[in-house]
Amino acid sequence: MPQVDPELFDRGQFQAELALKSSPIGAFKKAIRRAHDVLDARFRSIRDVRRLVEDRAWFTDQVLLEAWNRFSWSEDAEIALLAVGGYGRGELHPYSDIDLLILLGSDDQETFRESIEGFLTLLWDIGLEVGQSVRSVAECAEEARADLTVITNLMESRTIAGPEHLRVRMQEVTATAHMWPSQAFFVAKRQEQKNRHAKYNDTEYNLEPNVKSSPGGLRDVQTILWIARRHFGTLNLHAMVGQGFLLESEYTLLASSQEFLWKVRYALHMLAGRAEDRLLFDHQSKVAELLGYDEGDSKRTIERFMQKYYRVVMAIAELSDLITQHFEEVILRASESSPATALNNRFQVRDGYIEVTHPNVFKRTPFAIIEIFVLMAQHPDLNGVCADTIRLLRDHRHLIDDDFRQDIRNTSLFIELFKCEQGIHRNLRRMNRYGILGRYLPEFGHIVGQMQHDLFHIYTVDAHTLNLIKHLRKFKWPELAEKFPLASELIDKLPKPELIYLAGLYHDIGKGRGGDHSELGAIDAEAFGQRHHLPAWDTGLIVWLVQNHLAMSTTAQRKDLSDPQVINDFAAFVGDQTHLDYLYVLTVADINATNPSLWNSWRATLMRQLYTETKRALRRGLENPVEREEQIRLTQSAALEMLVRDGTDADDIEQLWSQLGDDYFLRHTADDVAWHTDAILRQPSDGDPLVLMKETTQREFEGGTQIFIYAPDQHDFFAVTVAAMAQLNLNIHDARILTSTSQFTLDTYIVLEAEGGSIGNNPQRIQQIRQSLVDTLKHPDEYPNIIQRRVPRQLKHFAFAPQVTIHNDAQRPVTVLELTAPDRPGLLAKVGRIFLDFDLSLQNAKIATLGERVEDVFFVTDANNQPLSDPELCARLQQTIITKLSATSSPSPLQISI
């Protein structure tokens, strides 16, 4: 800390200002405000951030000392003012906690009560928010013995005012000889860290990470120092080099990484005007600019800055693992180390950890760099790699060059890893953590830490890729067979399961280069297969999966799966059952690894329906496509059997079905047809609109709720319905719009609650929704107001011009309108209103919400139930949608084909 810094705090000037005023509050506030401005200006001029946080702590010391000295403390008073916690380390960010301990020599607080209260009141009055405790030395010992946080704070203490001997006594009574020996402290701190990491899904790669507490954050660095201090007394980062816990190069990396995070944290506090450690979307762009990442393009600026952030925290996490492992060996296992058991000439196992048999193993036999991960996968009982061997891996990873990558020993070992029964994901993650994977596969190295600035992809590309492989492995877990029944069944039937893991490794590897990442990834995958001497068929399958990994989800979410032609075209695309099985399993894993909230039972139903229908088409033979009439007959036959079995009159069923039209039976399952038919036949002919509700599948999987509406058709029916659902805070995920020959509408909607959850088995909520829809549809002329719900915070940061394409369907008499737009509350209701204003009838809709964007497809006709034929009308419709959905957006180029 600086001895004196007149620009930051001029004691003489401060004393003069105190003398001029009757109250000291104004002088203190002025000094605090001036120092705040000086330090912020220094930060903007890119001063050394380490010096800045120390300067702020020094200034705070001066203010507290001046405040303390305004009260009467006798020279021999047994009371001292201590800085503890982060402030005790002499580090303060703009709005960091100022933790104080008022330490007493005895339990008698009454002697000092008035002065203590006056001192704390003054701090409050001058705007200095502190966290304080008042304890005697004995009370400190009692509290510290029972509380890990207390002992941690007391370890980092220094005296600001009062006798130093009190702090010395406090340190003596809380030393390891009396409480929290280093072994117990290490175990507790390690568990505390695990619990903290679990709150952030055990990943450094969160969209809005916490700079302080997320894995790889500042708290991880501090945890290392706390453990070291408890075991060795006093030990700073650089002193750990002398103790053998860090190499000089590792210290340099760790220190520079800490300083980077300090800059980010300082900027966050300064921008937010409060203690803000979350790197929210609200701040990412401005923090990036403050740190010199301004590239003109805001999206690119954020992505480049965040890639730097993710690589820094990954480096901290890697070194934290290394040091923590080293501590475990020194603190917990030093006196009880067992003899080593040989695995082969290069590796042995000691205390459950793998280690080299000689320090020159990697230098003499570089292929051991890959072999160690294969051995760990083949021996899943191993706990990990010992610290010295981790360091040797880091020190020798420079040996991975083009010759290494072409060596048949290394390529064979890498493929062997993917054939292991267990440990594939765990060891790929270790390879990534230790910097091996990105060196062995340079194309993978390019995606390490690469983020995508959207809400759909909640992980960086490398984290998502490894997460996908983790999900593929989880499909083998019996406990997940209920949630993923088909994927769990198929994963065990794949003829070469290693191929799907390799396809998963490469499926997004082309991202961030510009162009179609699927095409770029396919090129890389083909080169990988050739370099690793895979059979031509194996390489071909991997390349096909990488190139087409989005095809199944796109078809399921954007095409009408009730159309036999759609199914037959998709069956022709996949070609055979093997390709279909691989693609289905990869797609399900990809969706779940992209964003867990995407996988609900409605999306699962779509995927399973596409898989099942395609499988039938392949069995039947592509030259024998199912005819519409056959599909209708099969659905009607199954539904009729259910209804007659339950006592429904067959003539009544036939009379109703004759009015419903072919599309109804194509778009609904036999179960749904039976459910609808029974309810419609029971409904009085002059009664209210019929509204049925049920969950699509099990509640525990956050399934969508199916709402079926049967009522006399009218032109504004869709617009009124979706506006009413918007008022009910429902999100529509799918819509099937049909009209019977008797001019009754039969509409089916799949909905979730606005926040994404299931309606579930909530009788009150179900009744509220049903009654509200019935009341609205009874009086459609009283068009519901499209409520203006507040746009969620995260969505505000993803504004882009809506894109609208319009073309006529080549096979059916409808016009297809495709909309891509930022997701906003009430969006579908606004679209429905526009269709009403343009006198359009909606025949069908496919609704898909992907993170911050919607990708919806509408099938519409004009008032005469004909496709749109007027280009000028289409242009006005497109422009109106763009204008209404985004007041600030620029029109996208016309994309109209009629």
What is the topology?
Elements (H helix, E strand, L loop, with lengths): L10 H10 L4 H20 L4 H20 L10 E6 H4 L9 E7 L8 H13 L4 E7 H10 L1 H8 L1 E5 L2 H10 L8 H17 L19 H15 L6 H4 L5 H25 L8 H10 L7 H35 L8 E2 L4 E4 L2 E4 L4 H4 L3 H11 L5 E2 L1 H10 L5 H5 L1 H11 L5 H10 L3 H4 L1 H4 L15 H14 L10 H7 L5 H10 L10 H15 L4 H12 L3 H8 L5 H11 L2 H18 L6 H20 L7 H18 L4 H8 L4 H6 L2 H13 L7 E6 L9 E8 L4 H11 L2 E7 L7 E10 L9 H16 L24 E6 L6 E8 L4 H11 L3 E6 L2 E2 L2 E9 L9 H15 L10 E2 L1
Parallel strand pairs: 2-3, 7-8, 13-18
Antiparallel strand pairs: 1-2, 1-4, 5-6, 6-7, 9-10, 10-12, 11-12, 13-14, 14-17, 15-17, 16-17
Helix pairs in contact: 2-3, 6-7, 6-8, 9-10, 9-14, 10-14, 12-13, 12-14, 13-14, 14-17, 16-19, 16-20, 20-23, 23-25, 23-30, 24-30, 25-27, 26-27, 28-31, 29-31, 30-31, 32-35, 36-37, 36-38, 38-39
GO molecular function, one term: [protein-PII] uridylyltransferase activity
Keywords: Hydrolase, Magnesium, Multifunctional enzyme, Nucleotidyltransferase, Repeat, Transferase
Organism: Phytopseudomonas seleniipraecipitans
